[in-house]
Known about the structure:
Blueprint: H1 8-28, H2 33-38, H3 40-50, E1 65-68, H4 74-83, H5 90-94, H6 124-143, E2 158-163, H7 164-168, H8 170-181, E3 187-193, E4 196-197, E5 200-201, H9 210-216, E6 220-225, H10 236-248, E7 254-259, H11 282-292, H12 304-310, H13 312-334, H14 336-346, H15 354-357, E8 366-367, H16 369-380, E9 387-391, H17 395-398, E10 407-408, E11 420-421, E12 426-428, H18 433-446, E13 450-456, H19 460-473, E14 478-482, H20 500-505, E15 511-513, H21 518-530, E16 536-539, E17 545-546, E18 562-566, H22 571-582, E19 588-592, H23 596-601, H24 604-610, E20 618-621, H25 630-633, E21 638-640, H26 651-657, H27 662-674
Parallel strand pairs: 1-2, 2-3, 3-7, 6-7, 9-12, 9-13, 10-11, 13-14, 14-16, 15-16, 18-19, 18-20, 20-21
Antiparallel strand pairs: 4-5, 8-17
Helix pairs in contact: 1-4, 1-11, 1-12, 3-4, 3-10, 6-8, 6-18, 8-18, 16-21, 18-19, 22-27
Amino acid sequence: MAALQWDPIDNKxxxxxxxxxxxxxxxxxxxxxxxxxxxxxxxxxxxxKVMRRDPSDQHWLGRDRFILSxxxxxxxxxxxxxxxxxxxxxxxxxxxxxxxxxxxGHPEYGHTDGVEITTGPLGQGISSSVGFAYAARxxxxxxxxxxxxxxxxxxxxxxxxxxxxxxxxxxxxxxxSLAGHQQLGNLIAIYDSNQISIEDDTxxxxxEDVKARYEAYHWHVQVVxxxxxxxxxEDVQALNDAIVAAQGVTDKPxxxxxxxxxxxPSPKKQNTGxxxxxxxGADELRAVKExxxxxxxxxxxxxxxxxxxxxxxVERGAEQxxxxxxxxxxxxxxxxxRKQLLDRLLKGEVxxxxxxxxxxxxxGKDVSTRAASGKVLNxxxxxxxxxxxxxxxxxxxxxxxxxxxxxxxxxxRSTHEWTGNPYGxxxxxxxxxxxxxxxxxxxxxxxxxxxxGGTFLIFSxxxxxxxxxxxxxxxxxxxxxxxxxxxxxxDGPTHxxxxxxxxxxxxxxxxxxxxxxxxxxxxAWKTMLERRNGPAGIALTRQNxxxxxxxxxxxxxxxxxxxxxxTGSEVxxxxxxxxxxxxxxxxxxxxxxxxxEWFAEQPAEYREKVLPAAVKARVSIEAGAALAWDKxxxxxxxxxxxxxxGASADYKTLFREFGxxxxxxxxxxKESLASL
Length: 676
């Protein structure tokens, strides 16, 4: 990295960034000005001097990634996107946190150019950044594994700005532990240690030794203290030197603890909780402008020479990209097959041979859908090298291991059971469900590979913030959940999901898939991998269930009196109930509904064919809460469900005692018919 050139115009640009942040919050009347003011030098240094980025193309493969984990300080990023020519203009800053603006309260992926990730809840950004670093290494292994370190067009850095709140959230501990374990030398985080949160001084709740903690995680840790002399000095050179040192550490992620004064240089509100999350007020804003030499009568003041200087980032970015392109073109010429793979992945296409690779399960056998899922993954893996994943310490239970592949971990981390390779395909998250979900999101956001991660369905509760963000960002993360009902058995109510299927379905833009047999599992995986619009979770049985000769069982004579709609292991109950009703002269249709979301997307004609509006007698069968079924079964319908917690017993006993039986399904059908 070239020596830092920092001129008076850079100081003026930094001060302009502070004033813009303060003005934007003052105009709208709410927001977080303090951190954006005191972090202006660090953010400016990254965007103008350090990072390799092309403001004209936010999708450039060779760019360094930037993640603002302290998302509430959105102006830290928005102002730099404006100054650097990423597409935001002064009017966008003036529209902060208002309807229809490109500058919402927290930066949103897909909404504002230059924003790599939506980091609303604290801790999510730094946790997902670990996924970005995972992906960078895996993609390098996929496309250019032989290149010497630092010479590949796939080499770049992941930069993070995090705050006290990020490091207090538990998910950041999970993810940071994994980052150190993985030796992710391309991950560099700047921790803004200003020791102020909404409740003011963080000493009231946060006094741990962060440096020692991250050193224990096997991170490279440096401290840049702008307060160390007793006279606050924004030593940009020291911060730059720390970044350069971090770039040189290739076997550890780096944490730079930057000790700042929040709200600097606000005369009366700096270093207080009041400047963290509220406007300065007219008098204090005027005082700040006077301290910095700005006209207190003006708002959103940007000198021509400042914007002319900072917009040179566009030209620099073009030059950096042109230089990178030379290396990329040389790689493409030398690696035509890998280039072909990259092109397919960038188009979001699955390989042509995926359907032929799907296993076919013979009817008449009993197979758990988790076992079927494992067979499907291993059948697809040879034709889909971009597919990789694993489990939160439940590999054998989740069946998420690609059996022919090495583990994604430095070689020296190998164990008796697992062989490590930095470019391996099998992920091991340890018992860290939440970090796993955040890391999967980061992998997906970074590039075109398709990761997956498994745990028990009940522990989706630990993942929920990351699941919701994946849906909000509309990204195709894949979550694998086994032990999908009380039928997991003797582990008891703490491990038996009841409300999870319904509450997961309640997340907008999230798809829940619960296949009814092994062959539905195969097609569910194919469909999830083909789709790129939003996340999906697949729920799978522990217990063996039949493999059917059909998915939909038509009513005798073709005209149903009643329709059973079931998911997962309960499809077999619906089929048994259909046979019993046929003996009594009642015609029943059975519909397996692996995904209510996919069904809702189908044309009205298809939905009418499967569930005719004229057939009011309907019964849903699902071993969980019936919360999601009202719209489908209607006023005359009935739901065979479980509306209470489970118990410790074998699954056959539990199904019998909780009414998850053929007899109950038949009774529900007769009740529905009688209500017409």
